[in-house]
Structure formats: structure tokens, C-alpha cells
Design goal:
Structural class of chain A: mainly alpha
Number of strands of chain B: 0
Order of helices and strands of chain A: HHHHHH
Number of strands of chain A: 0
CATH topology of the domain at 25-100 in chain B: Cytochrome Bc1 Complex, Chain D, domain 2
Distance between the termini of chain B: 57 Å
Oligomer: heterodimer
Structural class of chain B: mainly alpha
Largest sheet of chain B: none
Shape of chain A: globular
Helix content of chain B: 55-70%
Largest sheet of chain A: none
């Protein structure tokens, strides 16, 4: 049954994401895309429901390049997880970069490792 | 009849204890076992390259699930498939316990 509960939550969230941008030329803003991430990754102790149950990974302070790669792999199906495939299907490379920068940015022990600088150098 | 019930009860308790024990890794053992991991993911789970994820403070059960996925081929990163191939269940839990208790990643709102 947890999968039903999860589906209901996912539907509710995607409903939110779809209804909000109507004000903005029907264009789905990055803010809306972020809201989709945060529906799971922004909640303490949130867990997956299907096909296995475990905590969703923390993204705050994660390496931006790693997040971009992960999103691309989910989108292409190389990394096989239904929920994340659905979440990434309509993300552009630029969306991925911006979402990754958001999660990688500011705070945490990670700033000492100069990830933002390293990500900048790669360009 | 009473003896059977008692026996079953004891068995159930023993099983519960055993599974509770199996569920928790030993971070100190994990620190030693994770030497190969540390080469890329950093001694305390802050990785040495933007391509490699930080593990410090990551959810323990997510690390365990990821290592299982590399081991069973569900996740295919060639470096990690090789690294995870020879880890035992005990190793996986110890390593996950070590990295998850380091300071680093957080739930960003």
C-alpha cells in the first residue's frame, strides 16, 4: 500500500507544479521544477516507497557535477529508477545545471572543499 | 503445548535480536574497511573530485542500497561495480555506518 500513498503524494505535487506556472506564460519555471525535487529531497527522513524502501539521499552540499550526471543518467534510463526517470524526463541540461548548483551551493562542511570553484573551472 | 509456545517465543526473540544486530554497522570497522573508498570519496566522505559524490552524512540506508545496487548490477558505474563486487553484507553495513556519521551532506530546504 505504501506505493499508493506515494502515488497520491506524487500526483498532488505534480498538480501543484502544473497549476502554479499558469501565471507565468504557462512556462514551467525552475522554481516549479525545484518544487518537484523538494517534494521528497526537501523533507527530513523521507523514504522511497517502491520498489525498495530507504531514505532518499540528502542533496544539500552534494557535488554539482555529480548531481548533473545522476540526472542525465536517470533521464536516459542508464540509471534505472522509475520515479527519478519521470522527474527528469522534461529537464533540459540547463535545468539540471541550475538545480545541481542550487543543491551544491552554500553551507555545510563541503564549502571547505571548494566545489563551487571546481565546478566553475570545468566550464 | 506450553513448552512449544515458550520455545516459539524464545525463537522469535532470538531472531529479532539477530536481525537488529545485522541491521547496524560498526563505524569504527567501517573506517578501516573504507580505505579504498576514501581514495575517491575522501577520508571523511568529502570527495576529491566534482564527479564523485560526497558521502559524509549521507543516509545510511541509501548508501547500503546503493552498494547493493552496484553489487547486483542494478547500477552500472564501472568503477563502483568493481569496488562493490567483493564487499560482504557486513562490510557494506560497516562502511555505510562510517560515512553516514561524518558531517557534510544535509537536507536542503
Amino acid at each position: 500500500m505504501p506505493s499508493l500513498r506515494f502515488l497520491a503524494a506524487a500526483l498532488a505535487l505534480s498538480g501543484l507544479a502544473l497549476s502554479a506556472p499558469a501565471a507565468e506564460n504557462t512556462k514551467v519555471t525552475l522554481q516549479n521544477k525545484l518544487a518537484q525535487c523538494q517534494g521528497c529531497h526537501g523533507i527530513d527522513d523521507w523514504k522511497t516507497a517502491y520498489p525498495e524502501v530507504y531514505h532518499v539521499p540528502k542533496l544539500g552540499g552534494q557535488k554539482a557535477a555529480y548531481i548533473v550526471n545522476a540526472l542525465k543518467e536517470y533521464k536516459s534510463g542508464e540509471r534505472n529508477f522509475g520515479t527519478m526517470h519521470a522527474m527528469t524526463e522534461d529537464l533540459t541540461d540547463d535545468d539540471m545545471k541550475q538545480l545541481a548548483d542550487y543543491f551544491a551551493g552554500q553551507g555545510g562542511a563541503q564549502t571547505a572543499e571548494a566545489t563551487p570553484a571546481a565546478a566553475g573551472e570545468k566550464k | 503445548m506450553k513448552r512449544i509456545v515458550k520455545g516459539l517465543l524464545l525463537g522469535a526473540i532470538a531472531l529479532a535480536c539477530a536481525s537488529a544486530f545485522a541491521a547496524s554497522g560498526d563505524p569504527e570497522a567501517g573506517m578501516k574497511k573504507s580505505a579504498p573508498c576514501q581514495a575517491c570519496h575522501g577520508p571523511k566522505g568529502i570527495s576529491v573530485s566534482p564527479e564523485f559524490p560526497n558521502l559524509a552524512g549521507q543516509q545510511e540506508d541509501y548508501i547500503i542500497a546503493s552498494l547493493h545496487h552496484y553489487k547486483d548490477g542494478h547500477r552500472k558505474n564501472p568503477i563502483m561495480v568493481g569496488q562493490a563486487a567483493n564487499l560482504t553484507e557486513r562490510d557494506i553495513r560497516d562502511i555505510a555506518a562510517y560515512f553516514s556519521e561524518q558531517k557534510g551532506l544535509y537536507v536542503k530546504d
